[in-house]
Amino acid sequence: MNRDVIEILSILIKKMLNDQDLWLEQDEIIIELEDSGYSIENIKAAFTVVFNEVITAGDQDFYIDYAMKSGYNRVFTKTEKVYFDNDVRKLILKLNKLGILSADQLEIIIFRMMNFAVYNELKPDLVWEIINDVVEDNETLYLISDEIAEFNSSILKYQRVN
Question: Which regions of 49-146 does DSSP assign to beta strands (E)?
Fold first, then answer.
């Protein structure tokens, strides 16, 4: 790692300490760093160091109320917002809106999705596998696959039946 990358890392850390969201403001920060004379290669190297660090999720990042049915006003944590793209968040919201899972089941599904999202890109088929592992009731699985269009493909229906 060369001196410029270390300087850029220092600048990025200061921004994080000042509660700037590097992910959301990435484009503006890159322009600012380029204007300061840093090369795009060094900027990319510094961002790679920052973003490739695995963000671990602690107990405070998850909320479980065992008595509550899903359908409650679920808010994504900062960690979830980093790892879940808009499509995945929409799937979770649709699943929550159905109101047929317990809050415990929904949070277990989200927790497992987080574990996969750290290392893999979440797609509907992978999300379905996670749901299929957590939800044991076939009727509930059928309702989920019937109500959520992303789970209506023939491959997913085949998995549901088996």
Answer: none
